[in-house]
Design a protein that fits this description.
Helix content is about 30%, strand content about 30%. By secondary structure, the protein is α+β, with helices and mostly antiparallel strands. Bound molecules: adenosine monophosphate (AMP) and glycine. The site of glycine has 6 residues, from loops.
Length: about 425
């Protein structure tokens, strides 16, 4: 099978790595890929959806997998499907689950999926009224895609009103903020749970935990994610069962009933409050860096999972996972997440330790290949060191051993990834 992966991050690299190990896969392509994906396959510099579809047709590609949300929301799946090409991901209509927080919240309400109490509005007066009815902290969210920055956790009523005002005036996020969601703050622990869906059937992957803040102990600014691990012991069978019955099944049924069956990755941002899983948000793609830990836990051929989901035949797939743990530590550039950093050459020490060679690897993200053939850190999140083990502790130790082998000017990472699982 020949496969095209759309995207350029560590997430797409890790999908490529899983496919590379898969005997059913012959050629792998990335559009656009990054400075390291060309070691797994071939990078293409085609952006336009029609031009990509032309290329896929001309080159007999069997399956296209879409990594990031932007092309999904912009309709890449619709373009490919119209031309009879096999692609893994939701249509633009279904991708509204991520593309519009208002669509998502109203969908959850229509189908009785548990979520924080909220209003959606474009009126400042209405926003103020609802804010006054809540206790601080209060959550204010811009409707549209804001690159992960559109959520304000306001510590006071005044701060919430200010955030609502700045969003609604268009000053904060342009048109993405002209409608907002105001909701109650949920106090619990967060999970990232992923279901691979084929429109009707689904496979739930081991539950993960991300670390969104820049610094240890969840301090500092929000980032795209500084590390993740899976499976988390914070989920038990009861929570998985509640997610099945109250969240995933009603969502897939609801999407089908509303004429937009969901194919692709349903990424559930879950807050567990007193053992009850409540949906904070949906995304319609893998999390990054969660994907980097989940892909190596997949025991079944990755192509089978993605292909069968894309053609609506997950029923016939038997998907298995390794009985192991994975911990991924993001290594970021010096000024992440504030501003871009100067390109810095990456040097990776040769690994002699057999144990580390076998049980740890790097997923490359914000890297470029220089004209000198060397690898440079050029993005905010540069790479993810992933360790595997029979316990979270072992996986964590291996991930950090690998971190110690990687050098570039200004490297930064958290030193406590997976701490919630390991604290007493
Ligand atoms: P979102 O983009 O909706 O996932 O929000 C980003 C982050 O804000 C989440 O990962 C949570 O940590 C936090 N958050 C969002 N909504 C709430 C809420 N209702 N209560 C508490 N935290 C929230
Ligand atoms: N790691 C969270 C995200 O990808 O949105």
């Amino acid at each position: 099978m020949d496969i095209l992966i759309i995207g350029s991050g560590g997430r797409e690299y890790s999908i490529g790595l899983a496919l590379k190990k898969d005997k059913n896969v012959e050629r792998i392509f990335f559009a656009p890929g990054n400075g390291a994906t060309d070691e797994l396959g071939e990078n293409l510099s085609i952006n336009d959806f029609d031009a990509l579809a032309d290329w896929v047709e001309a080159n007999g590609i069997d399956l296209t997998i879409v990594g990031p949300e932007a092309p999904l929301v912009d309709g890449i799946v619709d373009v490919f499907k119209k031309r009879g090409l096999t692609i893994f991901g939701p249509t633009a209509q279904a991708a509204q689950l991520e593309g519009s927080k208002i669509f998502m919240k109203n969908f959850l309400a229509r189908h009785g999926v548990p979520t924080a109490r909220y209003i959606e509005t474009d009126s400042l007066e209405e926003a103020y009224k609802f804010i006054n009815s809540l206790e601080a902290p209060i959550v204010v969210k811009a409707d549209g895609l804001c690159g992960g920055k559109g959520v304000i956790i306001a510590q006071s009523h005044a701060e919430a009103k200010q955030a609502a005002g700045e969003m609604l005036s268009g000053n904060a996020f342009g048109d993405a903020g002209r409608s907002i969601v105001v909701e109650e703050f949920l106090d619990g622990y967060e999970l990232s749970v992923f279901a691979i869906c084929d429109g009707k059937d689904y496979v739930v992957l081991p539950a993960a935990q991300d670390h969104k803040r820049l610094l240890n102990n969840d301090q500092g600014p929000n980032t795209g994610g500084m590390g993740a691990y899976a499976p988390t012991p914070l989920v038990n069978d009861d929570i998985y069962a509640k997610l099945d019955e109250r969240v995933i099944k009603p969502t897939l049924k609801g999407m089908e009933e509303e004429g937009m069956p969901f194919t692709g990755v349903l990424f559930m941002g879950v807050m567990v409050v007193k053992d009850e899983p409540i949906i904070l948000e949906y995304n319609v793609r893998f999390g990054d860096p969660e994907c980097e830990e989940l892909m190596p836990l997949l025991k079944s051929p990755a192509s089978e999972l993605f292909y069968k989901a894309a053609i609506g035949d997950l029923k016939s797939a038997k998907i298995e996972f390794h009985d192991k743990y994975a911990v991924g530590v993001v290594m970021a550039s010096k000024d992440y997440p504030y501003k871009n950093s100067e390109p810095a050459e990456i040097i990776i020490d040769e690994i002699h330790h057999e144990d580390l060679k076998e049980n740890a690897h790097i997923s490359f993200a914000g890297v470029s290949r220089g004209e000198d053939g060397k690898l440079y850190a050029t993005g905010g999140r540069v790479l993810v060191c992933v360790g595997l083990g029979n316990s979270i502790k072992e996986a964590q130790e291996r991930a950090y051993m690998l971190v110690g082998q990687v050098h570039y000017a200004g490297k930064q990472c958290r030193t406590d990834i997976a701490y919630q699982a390991l604290k007493a």
